[in-house]
Specification:
With 279 residues, the protein is mostly beta strands. It has one domain: Maltoporin, Chain A, CATH 2.40.170. Helices cover 2% and strands 61% of the residues. The protein contains one helix and 18 strands. Strands 1-2-3-4-5-8-9-10-11-14-15-18 form a twelve-stranded antiparallel sheet, with no helix packed on it. A two-stranded antiparallel sheet has the order 6-7. Strands 12-13 form a two-stranded antiparallel ribbon. The longest helix is centred in the middle third of the chain and has 5 residues, at 115-119. It is globular, with a radius of gyration of 23 Å.
């Protein structure tokens, strides 16, 4: 590092071997793949630092195509710039980042699979020629006071086709993934004579999603799931906790149906009580 500038340069070497004896075209092997990355961090002052990073992408995939062969690894490039902040002597940290990622051969489920896939009762995949994902990532987490901890994050991501054999440029690549995603959680130890008690809450909220299934499509409206928690520490060994999950009994898909046309609902409102002993 050259204060206040820090430079990071490196690479990763991957070995990957896949064998599928059930398909004539199922074998795939990469003897060596070098994936470089680089980044710079500039300390603006004692609180804030700016950074930029670049990395190439190489990710083996295990999804199978119509013929039963494994898809080629996903490749691409990723750029990111951002700002980080550190407060209260490192007790609270915040970050804001903008990213731009291009991926080739990224797997996606075939909307109208051929009879072969249906007979084998499996999801068949294709590789997108080129997909571009852009977005914003914001996060804050840490201690607001010695007894109060909190965290929150927000992600905005838009993934679109750049080139493809069956989809137009600009079409959404993964409409079954939310464009907006927000998460937050907090916990607080009560003061004074109630200091053995702690309470907390969490929330997960996301925007609407949909997925094409056969000749139709399935939809998931925007939703939010809230949880509450209360805990009591008897002594240094015993700790009790009560969680009320999905407080408002929100009905939502845990995973919106894919090409198979089946999906799973998220857990309804439920109460969980736990007692833990530690040394």
């Amino acid at each position: 590092p050259i204060d206040p500038l820090h430079v990071i340069v490196g690479s990763r070497v991957s070995w990957y071997d896949y064998q599928n004896r059930s398909a004539s075209n199922g074998d795939y092997k990469v003897i060596r793949e070098v994936t470089p990355y680089a980044g710079i961090v500039y300390d603006l002052n004692d609180t804030y630092s700016a950074y930029a990073s670049y990395t190439e992408i190489f990710k083996p995939q295990n999804q199978l195509d119509v013929g039963g062969g494994v898809l080629d690894p996903m490749t691409g490039e990723s750029y990111e710039i951002g700002l980080k902040g550190e407060y209260f002597d490192g007790g609270l940290n915040a970050s804001l980042a903008v990213f731009d990622m291009t991926q080739e051969n990224r797997a996606y489920a075939i909307v109208n699979p051929p009879v072969t896939c249906q007979q084998q009762n499996r999801v068949c995949y294709e590789a997108a020629v080129e997909v571009r994902s852009r977005g914003i990532d914001a996060e804050i987490s840490g201690q607001l006071t010695p007894d109060w901890q909190a965290s929150a994050s927000y992600t905005l991501v838009l993934s679109q086709y750049v080139k493809d054999r069956t989809n137009d440029k600009g079409d959404l690549f993964a409409p079954n993934q939310p464009k907006h995603l927000f998460k937050a959680a907090t916990s607080y130890h009560l003061p004074g004579n109630l200091n053995k008690w702690r309470v907390g809450a969490d929330v997960l909220a996301q925007s609407e999603t949909y997925n094409r299934v056969g000749t139709g499509h399935s939809e998931q409206d925007a939703y939010a799931v809230v949880g509450l928690m209360a805990g009591y520490r008897f002594d240094e060994h015993w700790d009790a906790r009560v969680n009320l999950n999905n407080v408002f009994d929100e009905k939502y898909w845990q995973g919106i149906p894919l090409a198979t046309g089946s999906g799973v609902y998220g857990d309804p409102r439920n109460l969980m009580v736990s007692l833990k002993w530690s040394l």
